[in-house]
Structures
1.
Amino acid sequence: MAEPILKWVGGKRQLLQELRAHFPISYEEYHEPFIGGGAVFFEMEPTEGSINDLNRRLITFYEVIRDYPEDLIEENQRHRYEEGYYYDARDRFNELHQLEERSIEQEIEEASLMLYLNRTGYNGLYRVNQSNEFNVPFGTHRNPDFVRERQIRKASAVLEHIEIYNRDFSYLKDRAAEGDLVYFDPPYEPVSQTADFTEYQSEGFNKDDQRRLRDLAEQLSNTGVNVVISNSPPVWELYQDIDEFDVSTVGASRMINSDPDNRDDVAEVIITNVAKEDQQQQDLGNYV
Ligand SMILES: C[S@@+](CC[C@H](N)C(=O)[O-])C[C@H]1O[C@@H](n2cnc3c(N)ncnc32)[C@H](O)[C@@H]1O
């Protein structure tokens, strides 16, 4: 099984088994339009399909992994885990982002800095200011691994035949076809007014985006696409009147008990149009 290369807010590692239980036993292509750290994608190891994210640095990172894994590994070996070096690397990362056109070498450099900053910055956060400048401070880690040779080679092989986009999730309207599986893991609707879920992108993802996603999910469902969505409980009401979608709650107490410090430990909902008898949970016994 391939592993995610980056740490990413909203990572789905703990929910993998529950999510997979709702996936159909068989499908054609696999699409993940909010790829983030890609925990589910790398677990699935699909051979055909697409990934996407609005975050351009993240998408450059995956393109470089797919197309130039050895150059990336070589570049990663140049970095040092030192505070002064970290802040110079952060400046360079922001400088590269400002360039209108970049050479392949500059994209490889940016991808390598993305990984370095993710492994050595505070808490593995990705956070940017209004001008899209990455502003996470230096973090304390024991032997941070920013080379990740084995993981990069494995991920590169998985990505070999996968299309990579840097668009709004709505590209799927024209890309997903009957029999495909789409897994949507959007930025979550905040559970409370005070919850801060805006760190994904400075633009955020608002209620209208949640409704656009619901409309697209319904449209895809009508054309025979298998749809699975994870989100936080408040979005349940957006789907309650659509007959073909079932909503179940997962995650809550078990995650809270096993890791009290985990900030992702809110209950989640899984929304799907995959009929119970076609779901993998039939194969996994009564795991869920
Ligand atoms: C919850 S995270 C995905 C987490 C991922 N499943 C993982 O395991 O790491 C949501 C992602 O959606 C991206 N995003 C936000 N708005 C978007 C949009 N309109 N279209 C596509 N991607 C978007 C963010 O950049 C972020 O990476």
2.
Amino acid sequence: MGLHKTIALVSGANRGIGLAIAAGLARRGVHVLLGCRDLRRGMAAADRMLAEGVQLRPVQLDTTDDVSTEALAALVRRDYGRLDILVNNAGIALDADPSLPVAERLQRTLEVNVIGTARLTEAMLPLLAQSKRGRIVNVSSELASFGLRTDPEWEYAKFAMPTYQASKAAVNALTLSYAARLQEQGIKVNAICPGYTATEATNFMGPRTPEQAAVVAINFALLDDEGPTGAFANEAGELPW
Ligand SMILES: NC(=O)c1ccc[n+]([C@@H]2O[C@H](COP(=O)([O-])OP(=O)(O)OC[C@H]3O[C@@H](n4cnc5c(N)ncnc54)[C@H](OP(=O)(O)O)[C@@H]3O)[C@@H](O)[C@H]2O)c1
């Protein structure tokens, strides 16, 4: 069951950037658990990747659901006894839906992007603690960077996704908190931005492919012991918080 391999879990991995991160890690020899809300969609994604020679194990995971999250932690404990890499990729953006009242939009977005990230991280921490090289990668967005947002010359300065931007700023705050808390255990926690990418979330707008977007997350997932913790970065380097 891949016990000798590095073991990774990617949330929201049945499509888009999450699937590309999962496939990229698997191509590098990692045993990857493909976290999917709908297991049938995960199995279909895994079948498609198998046709390309990439083996992935779909597992049911709704990060808004304690029962789902705890059941997955129990499965990982039973089958592997540890987890080496957690990629918190599952995320939503509801700013484009004008029918949703702001409070509900915020509640639903925070529930997935922020509370879901914290819920899954907490469930997996005892398993990451069993790893010799624990890594957590939080998929954030440069749209949350206060440093960039306050620069009028920044290319996305006029992008207005207030709910999403608030949620990813909270993800960044969690990243720093977990990095500090887990430093002594050698677990590295970083936030990355995959860049503007053509996926369902963006109505397939954006110049980057999911495979290009996945590179920075894969690099941070496979950081060696000299690598940073508590960083926020994209493919080009560090981003301002
Ligand atoms: N695309 C971009 O330009 C861009 C830029 C910066 C950051 N990001 C971030 O990158 C990540 C992936 O985005 P994407 O563009 O690949 O989006 P996507 O194609 O919409 O994929 C989102 C994934 O998250 C899953 N998900 C949603 N709610 C979930 C929940 N409660 N529990 C578990 N999984 C859940 C979805 O599952 P279902 O299929 O079941 O809905 C799907 O697999 C997100 O965190 C996003 O904010 C994207």
